[in-house]
Amino acid sequence: KFAAILLVMSHWFACIWALVGMHGQEIGAPTWIDDISNKAHGPVSTSWSTYGAAMHFAIMTITSIGYGDITPQNMGEYV
Fold this sequence. Notes:
It contains 4 helices and no strands. By secondary structure, the chain is an all-alpha fold. The longest helix has 26 residues.
């Protein structure tokens, strides 16, 4: 039951985080998507790669394991 709840919460958080990043790109602000595209991870050019990176961020945040490779890049992402 816990795993199912974790998966659903992670999915929703990832969807919201991806939408925040895509909205920032639409208005021309630097975003976490641009940041990881500029790093050694390669370009985040598809919806699936954006979702995968957002899911990684969501799981690392919810479980408090830690991360550092995906960081907020504008005020909208910090909020």
